[in-house]
Amino acid sequence: MVRVSRRDAGKLLLAGCAGALVPARELLSENKIDSMVRGVQIGAQAYSFRDRPLDECIAAFREVGLGECELSEGHFQMANTHGPDLNQWRSETPLSYFKGVRKKFDVAGISLSAYGYNISPQLTDEMIERGFQATLAMGLNCITTTTRVSMVPRIDRYAQKYKVMVGYHNHDKTSEPDEVASAESFAHVLKGASPYARINLDIGHFTAANEDPVTFIREHNARIVTLHLKDRKRNHGPNMPFGQGDTPIVEVLRLLRDNQWKIPANIEYEYGKPGLDPVAEVKKCYAYCRKALES
Predict the structure, then answer these.
(1) Distant-in-sequence, close-in-space partners of 216: CB < 8 Å, separation ≥ 6
(2) pLDDT at 117
(3) Which residues have a Cβ under 8 Å from the Cβ of 246 and sit 6 or more positions away?
(4) Structure confidence at residue 89 (pLDDT)
(5) What are residue 234's phi and psi, to 5 degrees?
(6) What pLDDT is stored for residue 199 in this prediction?
(7) Could you tell me the mean pLDDT of each successive run of 10 residues in the chain, 295 residues long?
(8) The pLDDT of residue 26
(9) Domain boundaries, given as residue ranges, for the chain
(10) Which residues face 144 on adjacent strands?
(11) Per-position b or e across 7-45, b if 16+ CB within 10 A of its CB
(12) Residue 58 CB burial class (10 angstroms; 0-12, 13-18, ≥19)
């Protein structure tokens, strides 16, 4: 088990704060990818390229032309271990590994905005804390996570300890009261939690849950750390190519543009069928977003 001293924890906190305020020096180079469209940062959740290991995922971002990434832990799992050994890998992997991961993105000209680290009720406190330590090691100040409403007090302790924002991610399982799935469940997430408790709004899942993402963003933009862009049908319907579902992607992007809200809008490619190339499909999603913002 790797333990972090008080001195090292302090260094991590400073690193996290620096990462929040100042872009990495490497990103000032000619390699920097600009995917800001009319003031709206378009990027992707790395889960969009879940079929490939980390280095190939980074190459996919460059090929599409996306300069911002919400990094999924799944790419580390693919490269290292699966199943019951994952927690051992989390515990024993030195924090220098995560600094190296950040370096890969910096050199590629891609900005990291958050670490996608899902926190299930089965995780020990040690493993919850390890996610925060890895986040700071990458110079980030934000985790996005799929979890349960009842887990918020456990997670919030570490958010306060490490001064890291947690963007709680929603799905559309509205029949399960402990799921983050609706405007009401987000209210339960934020009630009584520290200011580090934030929202990672998936506008596709929110639409599938028969909620209104435009109204929700208008009311809660100050607590939203990132958006996931996908197109789904209402009434718990399927994922669709952008423009073929019921999700108001165009309206959401223009809302960010017109109000100058600095919320990263991350494509999360999920509608794929066997035989489709994720890079080609994410290119289509990006083109759809650009057209919406440039019109």
Answers:
(1) 183, 186, 201, 206
(2) 97
(3) 207, 231, 232, 233, 234, 237
(4) 84
(5) -70, 175
(6) 98
(7) 44 43 48 96 97 95 98 79 71 93 96 97 96 98 98 98 98 97 98 97 98 98 98 98 98 98 98 92 98 97
(8) 46
(9) 6-20+35-294
(10) 116, 167
(11) eeeeebbebbeebeeeebebbeeeebbebebbebbbbbb
(12) buried
Beta strands in 7-116 (DSSP E): 36-37, 40-45, 68-72, 111-116
C-alpha angle 190-194-197 in degrees, rounded to nearest 5: 50
Tokens read off for 61: 């971002």
Q: How far apart are CA 14 and CA 295, in angstroms?
A: 41
Q: What's the rounded Cα separation, in Å, for the pair 67 and 197?
A: 26
Identity of residue 255: L
Token digits for 22? 């100042």
The residues with which 255 forms a beta bridge, in sequence order, are none
Q: Quick check: helix, strand or coil at residue 35?
A: coil
Alpha-helix runs per DSSP H in 177-277? 183-190, 203-208, 213-220, 249-259
Q: How far apart are CA 20 and CA 237, in angstroms?
A: 37
- Check if the beta carbon of residue 131 is closer than 8 Å to that of residue 117: yes
Q: What is the DSSP string of 119-168?
A: --TTS-HHHHHHHHHHHHHTT--EEEE--BGGGHHHHHHHHHHHT-EEEE
Residue count (the chain): 295
Tokens of 69: 């990434």
Burial of 260 (0-12, 13-18, 19+ CB in 10 A): exposed
Phi, then psi, of 186 in degrees rounded to 5:
-65, -35
Give the CA distances from residue 179 to residues 77, 118, 182, in Å, rounded to whole numbers and listed in that order. 25, 13, 9
- The CATH superfamily of 6-20+35-294 is Divalent-metal-dependent TIM barrel enzymes (3.20.20.150)
Instruction: Compute the distance between CA of residue 61 and CA of residue 151 in angstroms, rounded to an integer.
Output: 32
